[in-house]
Amino acid sequence: MPIRVLIADDQIMIRQGFTALLDSEPDVQVVGQAADGIQAVALTAELHPDVILMDIRMPGMDGIEASRQIARFPDSTAKILILTTFDLDEYVYKALRAGASGFLLKEASAEQLVHAVHVIAAGEALLAPNITKRLLTRFARMEAPQLTRAEPDIALTEREAEVLLLLAQGLTNNEIAAHLIIAESTAKTYVSRILSKLDLRDRTQAAIYAYETGLIQPARES
């Protein structure tokens, strides 16, 4: 089955360009295009895409609110990949908190876009370590709204806490396994257990949770 993709962007040239690129992939199918957040929400409910490429700044309803509404769908399995012009845009952080699984710069190469779609569709978060550090270090200082998913004092085992620390730094399961000298399958099990305990959607949400609750202290910028 091909990966079903919905593209939400108010610029028609971007929608058409991404559509042409992704439709050329044998295992990817663009099933719809939305010009704003309202259309994105409606088409998600109608088409049930696997991945949504979501622009942030759109008229009517922006990508943040659209992501928030889609994340609330009880039967939605769509993964949201935020499209942005700036990798430190404050809206990116808000969108990740709203339920997105990662973000991609609009200037990314064709190969990076295709890779991102596959990563998100597979249930992973698009968390490049260097971007993760810069993004979360900057916005971890912002006053975070009260968390509603889980209390910050939920007990993690010592090993789970170690895995969460590495996860929040953007490490993959393979890298976590190598760092802790455990099997990759074991690292994957720990990550799944952490997400379940904290009632979080994915690795991106776990990383943000770790910073927001003070489990991990961001490094001070010089």
Written account of the structure:
It is built from ten helices and five strands; from the N terminus they run βαβαβαβαβαααααα. The model is unreliable at 140-152 and 218-222 (pLDDT under 50). With 222 residues, the protein is of the alpha/beta class. It has helices at 12-23, 37-47, 63-71, 90-98, 110-121, 129-139, 158-168, 173-180, 184-198, 203-212, and strands at 3-8, 28-34, 51-55, 79-84, 102-105. It has a five-stranded parallel beta sheet, sandwiched between helices. The protein has two domains: 3-126, Response regulator (Rossmann fold), CATH 3.40.50.2300; 127-222, 3-Layer(aba) Sandwich (Rossmann fold). It is globular. Helix content is 49%, strand content 13%.
Question: What's this model, at a glance?
Answer:
Helices cover 49% and strands 13% of the residues.
